[in-house]
Specification:
The chain has about 220 residues and is an alpha/beta fold. Helix content is about 45%, strand content about 15%. The chain contains eight helices and nine strands. Helix 5 links the parallel strand 3 and strand 4.
Length: about 220
């Protein structure tokens, strides 16, 4: 059984006749018909009921058409992966990310990556910023994108800063702190803070809490 025979069978089934398949593929009708006939001999069944101007699938032809289509898809996938690997590109890429980069940007990036590297499968892991370095260091992911602190930047990881971001504490205009001309540390500790929480190997922790009252 040859892969090109399977391809000719699927093409003929989808185009409605062996003649149509031959025209679309730029081959002679006799060459396509001979290849499919050889496949039928090897399989021991007739795949087409041949008429004067058209070829109709037999019952077994209908039953194996999907299998043949999947076989061609698997062969194409195999070729793509091997070609991809031979070019030096990654076959699989695992990326950790936090919510710093907006979702529409991620969708655009993933579409662009798929177009440029169709043979690379990409897995995304959502994590909080403090968890990202450990995921890379321990080999769970190949790369991570997210907010980093100065301490993390001084770690042994290879870090490229895409863009510096200045973070601020904010309150609603109606909040008591909004009426103060100057906010002191003690003022902050008297109010509830909403901050980012994350999980380490021991417990749930809050990132940069300024007081005992906070919501993670």
């Amino acid at each position: 059984m040859k892969l090109y025979q399977i391809e000719l069978f699927v093409e003929s089934a989808n185009s409605g006749s062996i003649a149509n398949s031959a025209r679309r593929l730029g081959k002679s009708r006799s060459a396509v018909s001979t290849a499919i006939a050889a496949l039928e001999v090897e399989l021991g069944v007739e795949l087409f009921e041949r008429g004067a101007n058209q070829s109709r699938l037999t019952e077994i032809g209908e039953l194996v058409l999907d299998d043949c289509t999947r076989l061609l898809q698997a062969a194409n996938s195999l070729q793509q992966k091997c070609k991809h690997y031979a070019s030096g590109a990654e076959v699989a890429l695992r990326v950790a990310r936090d919510d710093a980069i907006p979702e529409p940007v991620w969708r655009e990036m993933l579409a662009s990556l798929h177009n440029q590297f169709p043979g690379t499968s990409i897995s995304l892991v959502l994590a909080s910023p403090p968890e990202l370095p450990a995921l890379v260091e321990e080999g769970f992911v190949d790369a991570a994108f997210g907010l980093i602190t100065e301490d993390q930047e001084r770690s042994g990881l290879n870090i490229d800063v895409l863009n510096p971001i200045r973070t601020l504490m904010v309150v609603a205009p109606s909040h008591p702190l909004a009426g103060l001309k100057r906010v002191k540390q003690q003022d902050l500790t008297d109010h509830t803070q909403v901050t980012l929480s994350y999980v380490d190997e021991f417990s749930v922790k809050s990132l940069l809490p300024v007081g005992g009252q906070h919501i993670g």
